[in-house]
Amino acid sequence: MRVSVRVLFAILLLQCGGVACGFSDEPTVNPANPNAAGSSETDSSGTVSPRQQRDESVVSAEEIARLIEGLASDSYATRIRCRDRLMRIGLAAFDQLREARNHPDNEVAVVARRLTRGLRVQWSTASDSSEAKELLSEYGSHSVSQRRSRIESLARLPRSDAFSPLLRLARFETEPVLARAAALAVIALDSRDPNDARDFRGNESETARRVIENNRREFEASQIELALRQQKRISSQWLLRYAADLRQGQLDMDAWAALIQENRSQLSPDDTGATSEVHVSTSELLSLIWVTAERAIAHGVPSDALGIVEANVDLIPSRTRALIETATWALQNKLYRAVIAMHASHSELYRKSPILLYSAAEAYSRTGQDDSAGQLADIALAINPLPERTDDEDGEVPPDDGGPFQPNRPAPMHPQTIESHAQAHIEIATQLVERGLFQWAQKEYEIVIDRLPIDTAASSYARLQLADMFGELLRHADVVETLEPLTQRIDQDDEFRDRLISRRFSYTIVQSNMDYHRGLLLIEQGQLEAAQPVLRRAFEMNQENIDILIAMYRLDGDEQWKESVAKTLDEQIREAQSEVEDTRNSMQRAGPFRPAKGELAKRLNAYAWLVSNTEGDTDRALRYSKESLRLTPQQPALMDTCARCYFAVGDVESAIAMQKRACEEMPHSPPLERQLKEFEEALKQSRNESKPTG
C-alpha cells in the first residue's frame, strides 16, 4: 500500500476544523428526506436557495462515484472541490461514501470515513414519539456502546413508536455492527402482539384489527424498500427479506434458511466483523437465527423454529456463557429438542456447569424423559459439594487446621470454600425458582440448610428464600416448618440476632410471615376462630404486608371480628390514599429528596391492590393502577394488580387479557397463574349462567 504526502495532507486538512474544512457551517440533514441536500449557499434568512436545491437534490450515482474517485486526484484543487461537493450533497451520497470507506486508495478511504462521520444526521423527526426523541437526542455524539444501548431501549418501545427510528438507524448508522443491531430490532418487532397498545382494552372489531394490521404491514414494507433498495449491506439484505415477508403476509422460512446459509459463508474468521460490511460475526448470525425462530413461533409454526435452530446448532460457541444464554432462550421458547442437541454436542462443558445441566434436565423433563432429567439434576446438585453434618456440636465441621493428613478422616474444607459453594447453591436455586423448577430448587436450598449450621448467614438466607418459595406455592405447613427453627434460635441467641440485624435482617418480618402462613394453615384446616388472633398478630408486626389484611377481610367471623377488621381496613385505605397524595405533592417540589416516579407507582399500586381485593372505590383503584403502569410500564406485579382492578369493576375479559400479559412477563409465577385461573373460571361460570335454560 502506498502512503503519499497527499494522504497525510488530507488527514491534516480534515482535522483542521473551522470554515476551511467545511464542517462548521454544514447544515443538519433530515434522514426522513435524504435527497434534500445540505448547502452553504443560503440567503440572508438562512434558507437554501431554489437554484442550490435543484443543483444538489438530484444527483446521479455516476456523478457521486466520479466525485469519490476525484478524492484521489493529483490536483489539490480537484480533491477539495470533490470533497466540498460531496458534503453539500449530504445523505444522498451516504451509501456510496460508506462503501468508499474501504476504498483501495487510502486517501479516498480516509476522506470517506471522515465525511460519513461528519454528516450531521437529524436522527429524530417531528412524527417520533417523545420517548423516541429523547433516546435519539444527540445520538451521533455517543460512543458505540452507548448507541447500542439506545437501540435496545428503542426496541422496547411500542411497535408503532419503535419502527421508524430503528429503520432510520439501520439506514444511516455508519457502524456496521450498530446497523445490524437496529435491523435485528426492526425484524424482532414482528414477534410482538400487533395490538400492543399502552391500554389493553381495545374495542376494535376483528375486521377492523385485520385491516389495521394489513395497512401496517404494507406501510412498513414500503418504508423499508424505499430506504434500503439501493443498499447492499448485510443488514439491508435482512430487512429487505423481512419486507418481502410483510408483503406476502407470511414468513418464508425457506428464503430465510437460504439467507442464513449465505451469511454463514460471510462469517468473520476471527468472530469480530464489527467494523466490516462484508462479514458478520457468529453472535450476530445467532441473533438473526433466534429472531427468525421467534417469528416462526409467533406465526404459529414452532416446528420451523426448531428446524432453523437445530440446523445451526453448530454455530453456538463452545463457551459456558454462550451455551447458557442459548439454552435459556431455547427453553423460554419451548425449543426443548434444541437444548437436548446442545447437550449432546457439548456434554463435557455441561457436566461442569449446574445451570447447563439443569437446562438439559428441564428439556428432557418437558419431553417426557424423566429418568434422564433426574440423573442430570442429581449430577448438578453434587457440583459445589458441602461437608456432611456430624451429630456433635450442632453439626459443625471444623475448618482445616493445617495439621497432618489423616486418611480415615474426610479432608476439611476451607471456610471460604464452604461459603462460596453455599452461595452457588442459593443462586442456582433462585434461578430454578424463576424457571418454575421448584422441586430441584428445593433440593438446592435444602442442601445448604441441612449441611451448614443454622446460625450461618448462608443457611439463614436459604431458609428465608425456601420459605418464600413455599409461600408462593401455598405450602403453608412447609413455610412454618422452615422458619420455626430459625425464629427459635434467634429467641435463644442474642449474638446471632445481632449478627442478623447487622445484615439488615428483620426478625419481626420473619415472625410475621410465619404467623401469616400459620393462620392460613388454620383456615385450611377449618379452624377459623383460632386463625383470627394469629393473623391479627401477624399484621400488627408487619402492616406493610397488606395480603395479611386481605386474608383477615376474607376470613368469616362474628360481628366483633368483622367490625374490628372493617375499622382496620378503613384506616389502611385512608392511609394508602394519603401516601399517594403526599408522594404526588412531593414530586412537584424541586430538591434532592424529590421522590422518583417509581415511588409514586408503588403507592398507587398499594392502594389499588388493597381496595380491589376488599372494598372501597374500585373505579379509583383502577385509575391508580393504570397510572402506576404508565409510570413504570411492563411490570408484571403492577399488571397483576391492574387485572384484579378490572375484575373488581366487573370487566372480566379485560382482567384476563391483562393477567395473561403479566404471566407472559413473569412465567412460572404461581400467584399470577392462580389469579388467571380464577378469572377464567369466573368468566366461564358467567357465560354458563347467561345461557338460556330448557
From TrEMBL:
What stretch or stretches form a coiled coil here? Answer: none
Gene3D superfamilies recorded: Tetratricopeptide repeat domain
First and last residues of every TPR repeat:
512-545
Polar residues composition-biased segments: 31-51
Signal peptide positions on this chain:
1-22
Name the segments for region: Disordered. Answer: 31-57, 387-413
> Compositional bias (Acidic residues) spans?
390-399
Q: Which UniProt keywords apply?
A: Signal, TPR repeat
Keyword check for Signal = yes
Q: What is any Pfam family matched here? A: TPR_8
PROSITE patterns the UniProt entry points to: PROKAR_LIPOPROTEIN (PS51257), TPR (PS50005)
> Under which name does UniProt file this protein?
TPR repeat-containing protein
What is the native source organism of this protein?
Answer: Rhodopirellula sallentina SM41
